[in-house]
Amino acid sequence: MMKNMNFLKVININGSLTIFLLSISSITTVYAAPTPYSLAKNNFETQCVRGLATPVLVQNKVFNHSFKIKNSTGDFPILYGEEKASLPNHQNIQLENSGCEFYTFQIKLTLNADMLEKNQKLCQSCLAQQLKSLALYFKKDDQDFYFDGIKALEQQLKKKQTFKIHQPYVLAGSEDMPQTIEFSQIKKQANGQYTVDFYISTGPL
Length: 205
Description:
Radius of gyration: 29 Å
Largest sheet: 7 strands, antiparallel
Strand content: 35-45%
Order of helices and strands: EEHEEEEEEHHEEE
Number of helices: 3
Shape: globular
Distance between the termini: 46 Å
Structural class: alpha+beta
Number of strands: 11
Helix content: 10-25%
């Protein structure tokens, strides 16, 4: 930004005092506030120990695939990956690959009821088996991470024959860097499909 400044200067020329009006311009630097994305990018690059998210789904096995890097909100915004795809038989997956000290998949699925029910009621062991079968859509580097979360669910079902919503389950033997799975929603929709929300996470890294 340019700002004009005027001042008077008196000069003695051959015994006569002459007054000059001088004008100069000063430069004021104005710094723009960082955008939410640039702030999140800076936080992620300077504070987070994990790498930036990349696509984890095998693109030639899914349909209508998309992937974007987005910024979170709140007191400490960071970058995360948002991935969406259609699965066979009108099913869908939405995955957020996020975390700073943790590595986390936040997964939302739309699944058909015929593979999840027995006698028209949700069968939790059937759901676990169906989630396990979805591993084929993940890239090899991410399959083990996904599988470990499902193993934690299978351990719980083997022990108690049931699992609860909003209850984290930790894979046995992963206590040094806990591998956790937790469900936030399993709900049958009016169209007969199920919405299944859960996360798989490990850390702190």
